[in-house]
Amino acid sequence: MVNNLGENQFSGPQYRLGDLVNYFLRLGTIGFGGPVALVGYMHRDLVERRGWISESEYKEGLTLAQLMPGPLAAQLAIYLGYVHYGVLGATLVGVTFVLPSFLMVVTLGWAYVTYGGISWMQAVFYGVGASVIGIITISAYKLTQKTIGTNRLMWVIYLASAATTVITESESVWLFLGAGLIVWAIRTPPRKKSSTTVSGIAFPTLAMVSAAKASLNELLTQIAIFFTKAGAFVFGSGLAIVPFLYGGVVKEYGWLNDQQFLDAVAVAMITPGPVVITVGFIGYVVSAERYGFGAGLAGASVAALATFLPCYLLTIIPAPYFKKHGKRPGIVAFVDGVTAAAVGAIAGACLVLGRRTVLENGWTPEIPKILVLLTTIGLLLKFKKLSEPIVIIGAAIVGLLIYPFVR
To answer: Hey, which bits of 167-266 come out as E strands?
Structure first.
């Protein structure tokens, strides 16, 4: 007998842990487009095409990722690894998803420090940035179709969340919580108070910070403490961490100047995997410029571990509750509300990022970028099996060719 999870209810999931690990290793290696695109790929591949994860499990994971601080795509991946294979699955998926892009940004960090800057990246990103917006737009469109449907209440929440994201150019966890509570109150009025608290989540994080202080030298300790705060207290997608990083890396500590910081963000955008992996590049550059290659590798490792460990803990600790009680009517209603708000925020982020990417200084249209964006959307709509990395490579070549003429 096959249930709605796409699995035999007597024999367990119809895939091995190795299959899931291989999928996330591949996604971490060729998954371009940032958090919005990555969560879209997971839905397309694991829910729609393979049927390994049910729609409700995906929604639960997306809700948890939106409610907890840390990078969206990494948290969702960790939760999906947990669904059928527990802490081991969550751990292996988390590591394999992040590792490829970490190795890439460390390599780019070495080249950056060794050869001084990466001017070619501006040309590459000129084409890639516009193409990425096209990929994100397609992902947001598909998520909207799948999760919102024709429900009027969901559409109201979706549009309100999208509008708020466009106006404020940020995502708010209070909006997600409010949306979940509204749907919960309308569908299933609460009957009793929940005994669940966040204290069990907060203590491991605080303990981790203390351990970091006690075991690292001065520079690595500063890196560990700062990036732990970035991973533990910044809500929203991986892009939401950028302003927080700028305030610390450039303004507070003075580790990088403005141009170096922009280069770090560019590295994250043109490499696959989670955007927040830019912390590895920053950690490498900050340490290597002062103490050499070995210190750079240590700095990159500490920055990445400090950023991703909180999001790992803040996913697997509440995951059993979501997995055990996620089918209750009240939880389902809450999840639906948060999901509608989350997808609306993703759609709003498409508009915000699109405006920043294809409009120079936020106002003047850049025709070549607009053409790349529209071409990307057209190709992905017409050729359903076209691989996004191929589109990205094409956009990078276009950027290299046309950049000298537009700058």
So the answer is: none
